[in-house]
Amino acid sequence: MNLQKEICAAFCDGLVVRQVPMGYAISTPVTWFSGDTLSFYARVEGERARLEDSGSLLFDLEGQGVDFSSENRMELLSGLLEEHGVMLSEDDGLFCTEWVQKARIAKLALPFLTFLTRVQDLLFLNREIVKSTFREDLISALEDTFTEQRVSFSEALIPSLPHYTVDIVVRAPSGKVAAIFPATNDVSVLRAVLFSMEVQKHDVAGVVPFLIYENLDKAAITQQSREIAFNSDLTPAVWSGGRDEVIQKVQRYVQ
User: Which Pfam families does the UniProt entry name for this protein (predicted)?
Assistant: First the structure.
């Protein structure tokens, strides 16, 4: 048995190259997240050529909820692009290689195919990365609205209770303070509830506690924790329901 030949045969049997007006259409045995066959193209112009995706890849990822306005996800994408020698054309939204001599284009096929398979990982970010992205996106939006100087982190707003720290603190020009807790799990929700109780107990003026959910996914936060939060004095908001609306709500409550 020659394992190398068998592996090559198994892969190549599923590889189909067809000549098309732009150059070549290449269908692979690898499947896309949708179950469709992963295909790409070799665009040929005279003696030069490059590889590019079908033009729908970026749209497909965004359609599945990948937010490329997120700094975190763009960093991940940039790392994949650099690692595999791929570029994102801003003009037409294509993932493509650089232009090379037509005779060299075959050598770029495997790195390009590897990129196309790995870019799907953006759909399957683990929960910790997603939480981090949500928090970073929220902070970025708050800093854009209130300026960086008015936004601070992990701060104790009640002097007599130094252990009750607030995740994100926004000091508005009015003098009021938004005490914001991103709701990423049960612990963060209960921390926010306890803080709001202490604000009320100590009659702290000018502090508005917020609990901002990334979404209403019940897998991340239990129903019991949600009910406790809804019955508290916390001001709730849902990031996935409209980012601009969340920021505007914070503005209204502290103006």
Answer: DUF1828
